[in-house]
């Protein structure tokens, strides 16, 4: 133990520690913006439940692989935290979906009752009924459109300038949140290093132990889940031509966490054995960055509700 404490801290190892700590901070706060977004909207229609379920399965496989491989306690603790946080977010989404489904059923029942009592309104009631039938998310877009229409009447500014200004402020607020999380992670590493809670570990020492084949298989399976999880969300956004209900900060934190996680591994060592051992986790983190970039493009193309996009941590 004393030999580890007196190891010289190289620039590469320091960067590995800083990036790893920033990644940890990003993962801790990752799901908070989407939880806040769902609460503010009173709905979870914006996010794909399939996306969350597949991601949850990936986290379970990741935790199983980490336990099997006997990885460091911080990795295992983070995997447990993720499973817990996933459960909360999925439960919230299921709750809002069921609640809104009951409200919609009650509204339709009320509409049908009023139609039978007032026959001259039949054509208008049918028109309203059919206008609410469509792709998932059409209610959100219709309500958002009507809300923006009312705002444009009450204010002299043009609608495009209002939306552009709102989106610009959202990006600035989210960027400041990202910088705050990065600063928190870097400061956390500095405190851990100064207190002796974090010490550099020689890569050759880690390479002496082989990870079980079963743990490697679980690692690859979790990577496949992580890579496939975002596909339903991308398809949903494309089908509905909308990103409303999604937290932009959620995906920005995901990009930060994945990028710094991969950087932390690569700065630690580029030894062939060490690299091959971490391939599943590198694929799961760096691979999803491409999909996150795709979602960023969708945010830019389809836009979002400016007030909803800036869910600050």
Folded structure, characterized:
- This protein is mainly α and 313 residues long.
- It has one domain.
- 80% of the residues lie in helices and 0% in strands.
- It contains 14 helices and no strands.
- It has helices at residues 2-5, 11-29, 32-41, 49-69, 73-117, 122-131, 138-154, 159-195, 203-207, 213-240, 248-268, 272-277, 279-302, 306-309.
- Helix 10 runs parallel beside helix 13 (279-302).
- The longest helix has 45 residues, at 73-117.
- It is elongated.
- The protein starts with a helix and ends with a helix.
- One of its GO terms (cellular component) is lytic vacuole membrane.
- It is found in: Membrane.
- The chain crosses the membrane at residues 14-36, 48-69, 75-97, 171-191, 211-229, 249-267.
Uncertain segments: 126-139, 146-163, 305-312
Number of strands: 0
Estimated share of beta-strand residues? under 5%
Q: Which structural class fits the helix and strand makeup?
A: mainly alpha
Number of helices: 14
Q: What is the CA-atom radius of gyration, in angstroms? A: 24 Å
Give the termini separation.
Answer: 38 Å
Mean pLDDT: 78
Query: Helix proportion of residues, in percent?
Result: over 70%
Q: How would you characterize the largest beta sheet?
A: none
Give, in order, the helices and strands: HHHHHHHHHHHHHH
Q: Give the count of structural domains.
A: 1
**How would you describe the shape?**
elongated
Transmembrane segments: 14-36, 48-69, 75-97, 171-191, 211-229, 249-267
GO biological process, one term: vacuolar transmembrane transport
Pfam family, one: PQ-loop
Membrane topology: Multi-pass membrane protein
């Amino acid at each position: 133990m004393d030999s580890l404490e007196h190891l010289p801290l190289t620039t590469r190892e320091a960067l590995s520690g800083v990036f790893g700590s920033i990644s940890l901070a990003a993962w801790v706060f990752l799901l908070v913006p989407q939880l806040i977004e769902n609460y503010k909207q009173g709905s979870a229609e914006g996010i794909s439940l399939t996306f969350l379920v597949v991601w949850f399965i990936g986290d379970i496989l990741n935790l199983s692989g980490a336990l099997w491989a006997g990885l460091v306690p911080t990795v295992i603790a983070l995997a447990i935290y993720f499973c817990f946080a996933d459960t909360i977010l999925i439960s919230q989404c299921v709750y809002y979906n069921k609640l809104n489904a009951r409200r919609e059923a009650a509204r339709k029942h009320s509409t049908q009752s009023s139609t039978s009592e007032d026959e001259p309104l039949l054509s208008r009631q049918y028109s309203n009924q059919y206008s609410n039938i469509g792709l998932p998310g059409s209610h959100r877009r219709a309500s958002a459109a009507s809300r923006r229409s009312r705002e444009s009447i009450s204010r002299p500014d043009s609608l495009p300038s209002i939306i552009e200004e709102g989106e610009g402020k959202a990006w600035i607020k989210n960027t400041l949140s990202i910088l705050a999380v990065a600063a928190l992670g870097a400061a956390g590493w500095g405190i851990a290093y100064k207190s002796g809670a974090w010490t550099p570990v020689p890569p050759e020492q880690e390479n002496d132990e082989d990870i079980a084949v079963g743990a490697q298989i679980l690692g690859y399976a979790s990577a496949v889940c992580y890579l496939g999880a975002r596909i339903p969300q991308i398809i949903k956004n494309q089908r509905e031509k909308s990103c409303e209900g999604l937290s932009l900060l959620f995906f920005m934190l995901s990009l930060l966490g994945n990028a710094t996680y991969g950087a932390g591994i690569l700065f630690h060592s580029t030894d062939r054995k060490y690299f091959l051992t971490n391939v599943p986790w590198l694929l799961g983190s760096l691979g999803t960055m491409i999909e996150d970039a795709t979602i960023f493009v969708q945010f830019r193309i389809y836009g979002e509700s400016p007030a909803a996009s800036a869910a600050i941590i």
